[in-house]
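Following up on my earlier message about flavin-adenine dinucleotide. Here are the inputs again, as you asked, copied directly from the submission form:
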Amino acid sequence: MSDRPLRAAIVGGGIGGLAAACALRHRGIQVSVFEQAPALGEIGAGVFIYPNSLRQLERMGLRDALARVGARVGPASRYCRMDGSVVGPIVTTDSSGWNGFYGMHRADLLDALAAALPDGVVRTGHRCVGLQQDADVARLEFANGRTAEADLVIAADGIHSVLQKYVVGPMPPEYSGSRAYRGLVPRDRLPNWRDEAHQVWMGDGKHFMVFPVRSGQLLNYVGFVPTSSQTVESWSAVGDRDELAASFAGWDAPVTELLAQVESCFWWGLYDRRPLPAWTAGRLVLLGDAAHPMLPHLGQGANQAIEDGVALAVLLEGQGAAAVPEVLRRYEALRRVRTDVIQAEARRNGLRYDSRSGSLEQRDREIADAGRFRRQLYDYDVEAAALAFRDGGAVPAPLEAVPA
Ligand SMILES: Cc1cc2nc3c(=O)[nH]c(=O)nc-3n(C[C@H](O)[C@H](O)[C@H](O)COP(=O)(O)OP(=O)(O)OC[C@H]3O[C@@H](n4cnc5c(N)ncnc54)[C@H](O)[C@@H]3O)c2cc1C
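Thanks, got it. Here's what our run produced:
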């Protein structure tokens, strides 16, 4: 136990960085967040918040803020074939029946997280360019010439993390062969749309999904299509709306009607990565996409980043600076039994949605079995797991993969 609060420096003010800041403050740890952008991001479209992370955010006091901007997703959610025939329901509750499932605009979630932090915690315009550390302290260097010292550094700097190289050697991403077109359409342009629904249409090598965000005022769509030419791995690259519409011509009427309303879209090249060999080096630890970037086919990227922050906060609570490297290793041990499986299952789920996981009958069976997997995923309470682990319990058993 320590007689002074630990000082944590978080690099990256995305969902992972801001959620970690909230979680750490909640447990008495001093936090500064350094974000490269001049202001917290407007870029991005829909992200899912599932029961496994919503219960954590609610405990941090965000229940009302999220209820105001989230769009509830419930039992109208379903998987369809490209012609609209229904394959089955999408699980939207945990095993207790609690529906903690929101579609959220990324900017709304970032705003809610930032509003929960006192002024001065987040420092924008700080692009981290280097790190040094010794047995006592870690020092960050920024492109603006400033420096910062802390007992630990949390690299929440996303998929193109600059701090990852201080932990592991280069890990080249693998192109998944698929590109995602994404964007938003106002709900009121589609009078017959099913409300409060996450919907997925699955075709040969492609899939299309829609869910509501911003209190249901906007529909977030993503169309996944195969391509042999690599697409840049960026959240802000502008896509071609005509190509998008052509890719889904002849699909179920709600899909083509929505696409007729698209004025502009972004595209995003989907790259896959193997689990990293390590997440920590001394006083530096990776979190969120910097630690475990995953394909988007389980919608868990933001959720796992949020879980990471909660686990770290529980394990660091009450610890002194000298204990930091060991605590960070324990955090990695606790978290990666879960995230390694989710990274792999996200890849498998994408194959299923693209009807590339065997016969169509097998795909439909796996979709049904994936419901059990989703309940396991949503039931997990990272705070309870981290408290038990902190108190001497074992690392929980890994998630059970969907049977092949
Ligand atoms: C601009 C943007 C838009 C996105 N849009 C979507 C979307 O529409 N749908 C979806 O499902 N997911 C989206 N994501 C990804 C999603 O937010 C993440 O997969 C998930 O939330 C995990 O978040 P993270 O905090 O680990 O990483 P990120 O959300 O990527 O956040 C990383 C943060 O670190 C900052 N950063 C990076 N390098 C440095 C540096 N050197 N110094 C300081 N700061 C740095 C970045 O500016 C960013 O704010 C988007 C991510 C970004 C960055």
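One observation from looking it over: The CA atoms of residues 25 and 316 lie 11 Å apart. Hope that helps, and feel free to reply on this thread.
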